[in-house]
Amino acid sequence: MKKLIFLAFILMAFSNGNPTYRLFKENGKPIRYQKMIKQIADADIVLFGELHNNPISHWLELQLTKDLHQRKGENLVLGAEMFEADNQEFVSKYVKGEMNEESFMDTTRLWKNYQTDYKPLLDFAKNNNLHFVATNIPRPYASMVFRGGFEALEQLNDQEKSWIAPLPVKYDAELPGYKAMKKMGMHMSADMLDNFPKAQAIKDATMAHFILENWSKGQQFIHYNGAYHSNNYEGIIWYLKQANPDLKIVSIYTATAEEIRKMNPELKGKNTYCIVVREDMTKTY
C-alpha cells in the first residue's frame, strides 16, 4: 500500500508540472515515453540500465515491460542480472507456479530489495506465462576471477561451467568502461588491479551468453541490469555484438541530476535513451 501511495505521488507531481524524471534520446533531445515505446518495439534486445536503489528505474522497468508485452505477447522474454544462473531452476519453477513464494525465497539468492523492486517483474512473467532468465554468473565465480583472473575458472567442473560464459572468455582491457574501473581501484595490488575489470567482464560475458541462449529471431528480450553493465554500448552490448553483430539492441540508461530539463552533455552518444531522475528522489534502500 505504501508503495502504491508513493507511486501515485510521483505521477501526480509529474502531471502538475513538477516532473521527477525526463526521457532523452541519444542526441540529448527529449522524447515522450509512448514514442520511445513505439520506437523500440522492433528491437531484438532491450537492455534497461537501472540504478539499483532508484524507484523511478524500477517503476519504469515494469511499465515498459507491460507496454512491450502488449505489442509482443508471448514473444517477449525477460531476464535479469539480479538472478544468478545456478538459480535458474528455482526461477523457472516459481514463474511456472511449481514453487510457492516461501519456498522460492528460502532456496534462491535474492537481492535485499527483491520484494519491492524485482518481485513485480517476476510476478508479471508468472501471470503472463513468460520465460524469465537468470542471466548472471554465480557470485563466487566472479570472486574467483577477481582473485585469480579468468584462469581460475578452469578449475570448475562441467556443471559449474554451464553457469558461466563459455571459456576462454574474450576480453578487451582497452574498453573505456574497464579502463575506468582500473582507475577506481588504484589502491589495489597490481594483480588485483588487473583482475578488477575482469570480474566485471565475466559478469557481462555471462549475461550476454544467457541472453542469446534464450533469444531467437522474432522474439524480444528485455534485460534488467545495472546501468554500468550496458553504458556507452560496452559491457553486455560488446559481448552481444561479438556473438551477433546484426542484433538490433536498445540501451536505456538511468542517471540522476539536480536539473532535469536538459541532459548532461557528457551522456550524449552513449545510450539509445537516457532517463534522468531528480537527484533528491527517494531511494529504495
Protein traits:
7 strands, 285 residues, single chain, alpha/beta
Please report the total strand number as a whole number. Answer: 7
Order of helices and strands: HEHEHEHHHEHHHHEHEE
Which bin fits the share of residues in helices? 40-55%
Low-pLDDT parts are: 12-16
State which percent range the strand residues make up: 15-25%
Report the span from N to C terminus: 17 Å
Q: What structural category arises from helix and sheet content? A: alpha/beta
**Strand order across the largest sheet:** 1-7-6-2-5-3-4
Q: Kindly state the mean pLDDT as a whole number?
A: 93
Give the number of helices.
11
Biggest sheet statistics: 7 strands, mixed
Shape: globular
Radius of gyration: 19 Å
